[in-house]
Design brief:
alpha/beta; 285 residues; TIM Barrel; two-stranded parallel sheet; eight-stranded mixed β-sheet; binds iron/sulfur cluster
Length: 285
């Protein structure tokens, strides 16, 4: 299949300001990973300049092998017990107002890393009580006890991405399950006395139809999602899935309007939108 030329609207927001460079060197100094750097996110410069970053905890090696993801796969190292404190330190040092915590999938851990997530949220609270926190979690193999552990730490936003439409799961997300992901979002939405906002995200350009996207948006609303991100799949490495097509900015605008019409109250939809892009906006509504 001939390599598709990037359309003119796909260009990186690489605004490398002094703040962005300070953030990058601080992360290095504290030996912290960000999904921004691991996944080569096109918005890194812009987000770093705005003082937001998505911390990747639990190491940079995943036990799954999604065909759209550039993260390392294999046998991860044991979690670093001091990592939650280091994330707290970084958030404090940077004076972040909004921090996103995500991780690779750790099927090798009994709780999938849920305890480590909760410790990281609490470490940030201690270090910088005014910082709002979003967790973007793996599926913990649908383990309600593990998901409850994370929700008990009361993050402001609980995110879990469905990534694509159910028909494409075997190709795009082997090892994941669409209904399991929906049930995790529903569980979070019904979690006792939780004020946590439930959020999900997916990519387009992997071969899905508009009808399938519509059904996915309805499923997310039905599962209690209030916020959603919709972005263009971009192949991060030649051995990963090819892009089936590039959606135009106009189509992303249509999807945005469709999602708002379904009752989402925060929708980020655009060619370069990623799960944590403008994540803090959910609170500006
Ligand atoms: S589970 Fe997450 S980190 Fe692991 S391969 Fe899939 S997308 Fe990448």
């Amino acid at each position: 299949m001939a390599k598709k030329r990037l359309p003119p609207w796909i260009k990186s927001n690489s605004l490398w300001s002094p703040e962005a460079n300070e953030l990058r060197s601080l992360l290095k100094g504290l030996s912290l990973h960000t999904v921004c750097q691991e996944a080569r996110c096109p918005n890194m410069g812009e987000c770093f300049s705005r003082g937001t970053a998505t911390f990747l905890i639990l190491g940079d090696t995943c036990t799954r092998n999604c065909r759209f993801c550039a993260v390392n796969h294999g046998s991860p190292l044991p979690p670093d017990p001091f990592e939650p404190q280091r994330v707290g330190q970084a958030v404090k040092k940077l004076g972040l107002k909004f921090a996103v915590i995500t991780s690779v999938t750790r099927d090798d851990l009994t709780d999938g890393g849920a305890h480590h997530f909760a410790k990281t949220v609490l470490a940030i609270r201690e270090a910088n009580p005014v910082c709002l926190i979003e967790v973007l979690v793996p599926d913990f193999q649908g383990d309600a006890k593990a998901i409850g552990k994370v929700l008990e730490s009361s993050p402001e936003v609980f995110g879990h991405n469905v990534e694509t439409v159910p028909r494409l799961y075997p190709l795009v997300r082997p090892g994941a399950d669409y209904q399991r992901s929906l049930s995790i979002l529903k569980f979070a939405g019904n979690f006792s006395n939780s004020k946590t906002i439930v959020k999900s995200g997916f990519m387009v350009g992997l071969g899905e139809t508009r009808e399938e996207i519509r059904q996915l948006l309805e499923d997310l609303r039905e599962a209690g999602c209030k916020a959603v991100t919709i972005g263009q799949y971009l192949r991060p490495r030649i051995d990963l899935l090819p892009v089936s097509r590039y959606y135009t900015p106009e189509e992303f605008q249509e999807l945005k309007e469709e999602a708002y019409a379904l009752g989402f109250f925060n929708v980020e939809s655009g060619p370069l939108v990623r799960s944590s892009y403008h994540a803090e906006r959910v609170f500006q509504k």
